Amino acid sequence: MAFVNEMKTGKVCVITRGNLKGKDLLELMFDDGSSAPFALYIEASMCDRPNLMGSFEVSAWTRSGQVGQWTGHYRVAKKLPCLQPWKTPKSNSQTSTFNRR
């Protein structure tokens, strides 16, 4: 349950697809506005919707049922970890590309 408690501090879930140590991963960052948000990483192949668009719902479940729900946002970065707050894209595109320096 420690992971769930950390996830619950987040106001939104920002999902960033990128490369970490040669692997195509998704970073799920539960942004609480702090300088050290909770994030976990899964292989992109574990997701049945690898190219999400716009805003969507992210939920967490345990055997007891649903334990959390967040508004989700998706973007792509060259490298992970990204761990940057969500910024609404300025163009009409619903998917932003985040280039980490």
List the helices and strands and how they pair.
Layout: H1 2-8, E1 12-20, E2 23-31, E3 38-43, E4 56-62, E5 65-79, E6 96-98
Parallel strand pairs: 1-5, 5-6
Antiparallel strand pairs: 1-2, 2-3, 4-5
Commentary on this structure:
Strand 1 and strand 2 form a beta hairpin. The chain is mostly beta strands and 101 residues long. The relative contact order is 0.26. It is globular and about 35 Å long.
Query: Which structural class matches the secondary elements?
Result: mainly beta
Low-pLDDT parts are 91-101
How far apart the termini lie comes to 34 Å
Order of helices and strands: HEEEEEE
Question: Summarize this, please?
Answer:
With 101 residues, the protein is mainly beta.
Q: What are its keywords?
A:
101 residues, mainly beta, 6-stranded mixed β-sheet, 1 helix, 49% strand, globular, disordered C terminus
